Amino acid sequence: xxxxxxxxxxxxxxxxxxxxxxxxxxxxxxxxxxxxxxxxxxxxxxxxxxxxxxxxxxxxxxxxxxxxxxxxxxxxxxxxxxxxxxxxxxxxxxxxxxxxxxxxxxxxxxxxxxxxxxxxxxxxxxxxxxxxxxxxxxxxxxxxxxxxxxxxxxxxxxxxxxxxxxxxxxxxxxxxxxxxxxxxxxxxxxxxxxxxxxxxxxxxxxxxxxxxxxxxxxxxxxxxxxxxxxxxxxxxxxxxxxxxxxxxxxxxxxxxxxxxxxxxxxxxxxxxxxxxxxxxxxxxxxxxxxxxxxxxxxxxxxxxxxxxxxxxxxxxxxxxxxxxxxxxxxxxxxxxxxxxxxxxxxxxxxxxxxxxxxxxxxxxxxxxxxxxxxxxxxxxxxx
Length: 383
Fold this sequence. Notes:
Belongs to the amidase family. Pfam families: Amidase. Residues 11-358 form the Amidase domain. It comes from Rhizobium lemnae. Helix 6 (220-239) crosses helix 8 (265-285). The chain has a domain at 2-179 and 294-371: Amidase signature (AS) domain (Amidase signature (AS) enzymes, Alpha-Beta Complex). It has helices at residues 45-52, 95-102, 119-125, 159-169, 195-203, 220-239, 251-260, 265-285, 310-313, 322-326, 354-367, and strands at 2-7, 13-17, 56-61, 108-113, 128-131, 151-156, 183-187, 211-215, 291-295, 330-336, 342-348. With 383 residues, the chain is α/β, with parallel strands linked by helices. An eleven-stranded mixed β-sheet has the order 1-3-2-4-6-5-10-11-9-7-8, sandwiched between helices. Helices cover 31% and strands 16% of the residues.
């Protein structure tokens, strides 16, 4: 994290991912190719909101280059350390934001999530990560400037701080209280998830009076593939000029951008058709349950030494990326496996039901012992 200080001396401390503009600073997006870009001429809208709310921005965080990777490994700027699991990847692309929160350096941090880039590093580092409803938080002043998938959202160590962050990021946000028992739809699993990574989801019990029913998402894997195609096309469109100087790009990102040239208009049309069908599938389920409950990761995060092995990282966002495609709000709560590896659950709610989703997460934390050592709901976080 590059350290500096903006804002009130006694405000909540915040770190901001370096794909978000802060006036007078170069928005490098973790890339050597953008090092000599002109400094931002104004603050991103959410930076203005943070400062207006009395927050103290204490640094910009490192990230996976161009927000186009899942490991958080960055050979140009250096890879943020995973404070909770030092031998493992910090996750990407909002690696530095997750790391700063896990290390206790800030009260909350801001990341972006285009395909799991808040939720996956949150679990890797053992903190809470929230992707709001698509379009709820202004992306003005964030890169890429255009995206049909990307959301800005917070990391924190407890739900109360996530809610406080949302009050700042979204002036219309109002903390919710649950007024009825929860109806939860738990995803039916197949054999592609490691048993240890499924245990957290299977251990969740509904709070008193609530019910859990098993649900299916037949289009989940098609949605994952569709989101891969769309993020590839949109990231290439935003960064195609950087391929004129390929030596300035990290090998993994350069290869992904080059591969994105092979995504055809037909591929995108088919992906958009899947988007419509998957969104309808999710919304139909959310008419009969309050939220969906899924695992976060199908396999444990890889070791740093394994980060360049595609087989170790390709499936990490299987349960995350589809909800970028559909635009639904999604929250992850961290746990650990019996072997001490990072794991957790994901909760997904109806569009616009962000506050109720956070209230439901609070209730689950309070009533399920698997969370109470990792995500206590009202732990004091002022520094």
